[in-house]
Design brief:
single chain; 295 residues; alpha/beta; Immunoglobulin-like; Rossmann fold; nine-stranded mixed sheet; five-stranded mixed sheet; 6 helices; globular
């Protein structure tokens, strides 16, 4: 299990389907269906959280504020700054467990000591994009949501990285990859954090279990002659770390050598001292894998 190391985010406690979290100065309670245990809620912040996301029986849900939450506030991870807000469907704008992958990408880019081009598909609000840009890479950021890309640009400005070489594109990721292949463009690193289910800007339906293999296969020719990494993340329970590692093994390692590894990623829980799993990551990289379970 690989866990993120934060100073301004804290997973305080977990119980009965919910997380108690500190995001900078804001304390939130959010649902998490994998939290099946009903441990005592001894931490007083359970009763003093700033806001609580309540699910609706008909789907979706809403935030109930116990005190006013800023319409937008900031949180920092190292030299990176992210703007947060309480969104519909419980989210805040970043997935803090992904910090371990930001660190991995930055280390690979910095250690390359050469110009590096990275493609970030399903780029969301830009955390991985900005980590790569901070490390010195030029990045192509693609997401189907115009609002998310706009938010990512705001995060770039908050980080002082607005002038870095980043292409911000609102596009369907599959269609974009096909066009990049025709154009002959290549990248030294590819990051892919696809949703379990979603729709493209033209209403295209995306189901991860059906689309992941064809997309990874489609991305193969986009890797340069001397690529650094291919990072694949999933929150879909049916795709274990070893399944994703197998995908990268047959589609990337077979051609480029290197190593493939995978692991769960998670967040340490202050109250229990345990780790809450938050998805899986598989990575192909040139050279030997460090910090992962190798396959």
């Amino acid at each position: 299990m690989r866990t993120a190391k934060w100073k301004e985010y804290e997973l305080i406690d977990t119980s009965d389907g919910e997380r108690l979290e500190r995001w900078g100065s804001v304390v939130l309670i959010r649902p998490d269906p994998q939290i099946i245990w009903k441990t005592p809620r001894e931490n007083p912040l359970w009763k003093k959280a700033d806001a609580h996301y309540l699910r609706s029986a008909s789907g979706g849900g809403h935030w109930r504020e116990n005190r006013p939450v800023p319409p937008m506030w900031r949180i920092h991870y190292g030299e990176l700054t992210f703007q947060l807000k309480t969104m519909g469907f419980k989210h805040t704008g970043i997935f803090p467990e992904q910090a371990v992958n930001w660190d991995f990408a930055m280390e690979k880019i910095r250690s390359a000591k050469r110009p590096v081009r990275v493609l970030n598909l399903f780029g969301y609000t830009g955390a991985a994009t900005l980590a790569c840009a901070l490390a010195g890479a030029s990045v192509c950021h693609v997401d189907a949501s115009r609002g998310m890309v706009a938010w990512a640009k705001e995060n770039a400005a908050a980080c002082g990285l607005a002038d870095r070489p980043v292409r911000w594109l609102v596009d369907d990721c599959v269609k974009f990859v096909r066009r990049e292949r025709r154009r002959g463009n290549v990248y030294d690193g590819i990051i892919m954090d696809p949703p379990s289910y979603g729709r493209g800007p033209g209403g295209e339906v995306w189901k991860l279990e059906e689309e992941l293999y064809p997309l990874v296969e489609l991305c193969g020719p986009l890797l340069s002659e001397h690529p650094l990494f291919f990072l694949l993340n999933s929150y879909t329970a049916g795709l274990s770390p070893s399944v994703m590692a197998y995908l990268l093994g047959i589609l990337v390692r077979k051609k480029h050598g290197g190593s493939v590894a995978a692991d769960e990623i998670g967040l340490p829980v202050t109250q229990s001292g345990l780790v809450l799993p938050c998805g899986s990551t598989a990575v192909w990289q040139s050279g030997d894998s460090i910090g992962f379970n190798q396959f």
